[in-house]
Amino acid sequence: MKRSTLLPLLVTILILCSSWGFFAHQKINQTAVFTLPSGMIGFYKRNIVYLTAHSVDPDKRRYIDTAEAPRHYLDVENFEADIDSIPEKWTDAVAKYGRAKLHEDGEVPWQIQKTYYRLVNAFKTLDSARILKYSADLGHYIADAHVPLHTTNNHNGQLSNQVGIHAFWESRLPELFSKDYNLYVGKANYIENPLKEAWKIVKHTHGLLDSVLKLEATLNSTFPSDQKYDYSERNNVVLKQYSFAYSKAYHDKMQGMVEKQMRSSILAIGSFWFSAWVDAGQPVLKNLILTPLTEDELLENTHRPATNEHPVREEL
User: Fold this and answer.
1) Residue 290 lies in domain
2) Mean pLDDT, the chain, as a whole number?
3) Which of 5, 87, 144, 191 could in theory staple to 275 by disulfide, Cβ–Cβ 3.0 to 4.6 A?
4) Domain membership flag for residue 60
5) Is residue 287 included in any domain, yes or no?
6) What is the pLDDT of residues 210-232, one digit of tens each?
7) Number of folded domains that form the chain
8) What is the DSSP string of the chain?
């Protein structure tokens, strides 16, 4: 395949497969900046273009790093029938299931914690490149934890005859309706225990899963089949997509769920950023150093810290 035709195809695949979709991830990270206090918001506003653009880096890495994908989800049913039976601490989960199963069935709450402590360390060392990188990445993983279909092995409706519901819920609906959302969520809050907060998010999100699936299945059984889909062109590719009428009907049935999850994502991201800054001692975000990211960091090889990184203790 020619390079000129390969690039648009890869872009299209990324758009179709990305969690929350590029649009929603970027909007969420961008808006989270405005939850921050005076000691942080200046630096984050100056770098809002970076934080917005790089909010989707973890999705891009999924196609070059085989370890990346499980950092975005937790297939609850593959661990336990009841999410509360899954050990919250990483070491306890490894002891119960083994690393291979965790890498297969998902790690998102622990990935949030890992990335959080990397951000704390970046603040402590006044390392601007890593503050921005880990802020953008942390925002992505937290936002993913707010998507109900990231908490199930039925991630794309393939087990319930609803194939396509993943992108429908997290990409199509925000693109169509977020212009009418109220995304002002107030100011960030300090998080006492990042891991417990990550689990709180995942558990709440998983509790929405039945509604996500059942409401769409009910709508599908009554909606005229010839009005369910339409077509559009993106990156020179004709795409079959859910029609506006079907999308609106589903969106209305969920009674603001997508908006609420976007709002919750925004506040959580701002609160994790703020808490990392506080845990680092509230450093003044001026005259920061700029140490180029290593190749491993660019690929987010979290299993081996860069040699110039000063790790903090990570209670996993």
Assistant:
1) 3-152+165-206+254-298
2) 90
3) 191
4) yes
5) yes
6) 999 999 999 999 999 999 999 98
7) 1
8) --HHHHHHHHHHHHHHHSSSHHHHHHHHHHHHGGGS-HHHHHHHHHTHHHHHHGGGHHHHHTTT-TTTGGGG-B-HHHH-SSGGGS-SSHHHHHHHH-HHHHHHHB-HHHHHHHHHHHHHHHHHTTBHHHHHHHHHHHHHHHHHTT-GGGSSS-TTSTTTT-TTHHHIIIIIHHHHHGGG-----------S-HHHHHHHHHHHHHTTHHHHHHHHHHHHHHS-GGGSEEEEEETTEEEEEE-HHHHHHHHHHTTTHHHHHHHHHHHHHHHHHHHHHHHTT----SS-B-PPPPHHHHTT-TTS--TT--PPP---
